[in-house]
Amino acid sequence: MIVAFSVSPLGVGEDVGEYVADAVRVVRESGLPNRTDAMFTSIEGEWDEVMDVVKRAVAAVEARAGRVSLVLKADIRPGVTDGLTSKVETVERYLGNS
């Protein structure tokens, strides 16, 4: 499964990069395949391991902010691995054919 999620502290002002870095650090230290862009962090693995990482990422932000917003989108497709890479490669292949 692939989960794309965004964790943001609320009530701490506009500059939230330091808080978001705490969440991304948890994801990167998990050892699961992941990718971070300007809006979301995507992580790939089995349900329990991915959700555990999301929970710990939220807790890392919550430790410094009393209120946290979580946006989560999941692609639950048993038996598929390397989706983070293969999905993008498929789109790029189609773009190359245009």
What's a concise summary of this model?
The protein is of the alpha+beta class and 98 residues long. The chain has helices spanning 17-29, 47-62, 83-96; strands at 2-10, 34-36, 41-44, 67-75. The protein is globular.
Overall form:
globular
Task: Please tally the β strands and state the result.
Answer: 4
- Summarize the main sheet: 4 strands, antiparallel
Main sheet: strand order: 2-3-1-4
- The low-confidence parts are none
Helices, by number, come to 3
Portion of residues within helices = 40-55%
Secondary-structure element sequence? EHEEHEH
Strand content: 25-35%
The whole-number mean of residue pLDDT values reads: 93
Structural class comes to: alpha+beta
The Rg value, from CA coordinates, equals: 15 Å
| End-to-end gap | 30 Å
Structural summary, described in words:
With 98 residues, the chain is an alpha+beta fold. Helices cover 44% and strands 26% of the residues. The chain is built from 3 helices and 4 strands; from the N terminus they run E-H-E-E-H-E-H. The protein has helices at residues 17-29, 47-62, 83-96; strands spanning 2-10, 34-36, 41-44, 67-75. It has a 4-stranded antiparallel beta sheet with strand order 2-3-1-4, with helices on one face. Strand 2 and strand 3 (41-44) form a beta hairpin. The relative contact order is 0.25. Pfam families: Thiamine_BP. Belongs to the UPF0045 family. InterPro entries: MTH1187/YkoF-like, Thiamine_BP, UPF0045_domain. Residues 3-92 form the Thiamine-binding protein domain.
Write the layout of secondary structure elements.
Layout: E1 2-10, H1 17-29, E2 34-36, E3 41-44, H2 47-62, E4 67-75, H3 83-96
Antiparallel strand pairs: 1-3, 1-4, 2-3
